[in-house]
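I'm stuck. Protein, please.
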Amino acid sequence: MIGLRAGITIAIAAILCAALGLIGWGAQRAAEHTIVPAILVKAESVGRSAAALVERADAAGIPLDHLVGVAAYFDELRAANAEFAELRLSLAGAGEAARSGSAEGLGAATVVRVPVTRAGAPVGEIAITIDPSVVGRQVAAVLLDVAFIGVVALLVALELVALVVGTRGIEAVAAVEQRLRALARGRLSLHQSGAGTGAEPLLEPVDTQVARLGARHARARAEAGQRGDAALAGHLDALAERTGLGEVVATESRLAGAIRPALFLFMLAEELTRPFLPRLAQALAPAGGGLSPDTAASLPIVAFMAVVAAFQIPFAGLSERLGRRSGFAAGALLAAAGYALSAVSHDYVLFLGARIVAGVGYALVFVSAQGHVVDHSHGAGRSAALAVFVRAIMVACLCGPPIGGVIADRLGPSAALGASAALALVALGVVLMVVPRGVPRAVHATLSVGDLLRATRAPRLMALLVGCAFPAKLLFAALCLLLVPLELQRQGYSAAAIGRFQMIYPLVMVLAVPVFAALADRLKARAAFVVAGGLVSGLGALAVPLYPSVGLIVFALAMLGLGQALSIASQSALVADTAAHSGFSAAGVLGLFRLVERSGNAAGPAGAGILLAAAGFSVTTALMGAVVVAGAVVFALSGRRAAAPSGSRRATRAATSEGSPV
């Protein structure tokens, strides 16, 4: 059965797709009517310039049939203008004098003819043949950008629908759907959700009947107990277990999800920078400054990731002291300042400092948003709320790179960074608008060095962290944030195209994580899924040197997404199990896990930047993949199996909150 929310989402998607289809059709017509005339005007301008040179030579007394260097000049023009298939100089009565290229096999190609004159009389002509396939490719490139922007616009619209409809409206629909789904499965539990949303007229008849059935069951069970009728009592208990009679499903605070639109917009701001950031860093690096281009490209990424890793734990207490809303707003403001400073920086050191400022803001926003979700959710509702938190981040990973790439290609990197600053400010405004002001609270005990040291005393845990968590983030950050953008740039791909390639990893993650999380839980094989994920992602990177090509880059990105989807939920759940079933501090274990992951994010671009200059793209990618494979093998061989899984799907889903790319 399609739920109410799914039905509403499908209806919204259908309306938006129809609108985007109309926009795409209009864009195609506009491109055809704009690009072709522009190319013709360009050809006429080039032809007039070439004809003027010939006329000047003729005026100087040089015989036109003895001109030299014309073909070489035409070659230069064709090299600078891919749409020119052939340039030809023809003289009246003497035929062809010079030519570059060939128009054979082009069919009905457009030819622009510019006369060469002497005293107003034509003595020859410059003929430029337009390659229709190049024109078609340019139109197709524009349409491809429009198509990707359309898909991204659809995702953004669906992500922000809660902001438009309001959290009360979303909660009302969810409450109705929750009851309908439960009844369809034969569950007669009493639900508390939906209060205060305006959906009470729809909910009250169902809740009244379910409460009445629950009360009758409770009376019958009590009477059976008083009479000592064990058979009837057992039958009633089995009925309650099968149908949920007497159970009360706790409500989920709508405040937990209120921060999602602001979080999505903020994460989108950072994701805009992914396609062009390495290239921009290389351009800003001073020549002869002692840094190789690859190292210069990696340093801003390393600095950002290192700051996020270093401030993740201290900022947890700061956001609690400030209040989650104020912490988010302060972080967004800092990040916006960092993006704005990056946009106007023409000095490499200043640009590096701006990225550090943005990293500080990012860390504060992340811990504040996550803390807000935890503060306003509990039990199974917390697991669902954290899953929504992660989906908002992953959808931002899908949407940001193609948008940022298009902006950087069309308007320049400074404009794209300006857009990031604007989005961060919009996120600040949204959080102030939709999230109520919280009361700053006394800070709970923060994570201490002793907590971290105690957590390191479990060999199996350390094998998981050092062998799986660290290498997974190492490979992700190295491949997706540095190696792939630089390699595709070297092969001549635009920032928009690089952004499209960067959609592969988050797309696989969004589709596959829920499937593998549920499967690992059902099979009680979390450790096996962690090992399999490391092997899959590592072997994908190891395959690149076999035949270095764009196809294998796509394969490596897809395998990275698949491997991370296999392992990330199970990996996080194993860490949570260690905290729950061992004698270690939960804060110490989970804090150490976060620190190790973020350290991998920082170490990946740093190591890749150094290796890239010495070994090249393919070997560097393979070495990173080998680290992941070796780590997975070490974990597989690291002694006895981890403690038996809790059997609850909740732990797996809640743990995926650590599955964010950064």
Summary: The longest helix spans residues 4-59. Confidence is low (pLDDT under 50) at residues 640-660. Residues 537 and 559 are 5 Å apart (CA to CA).
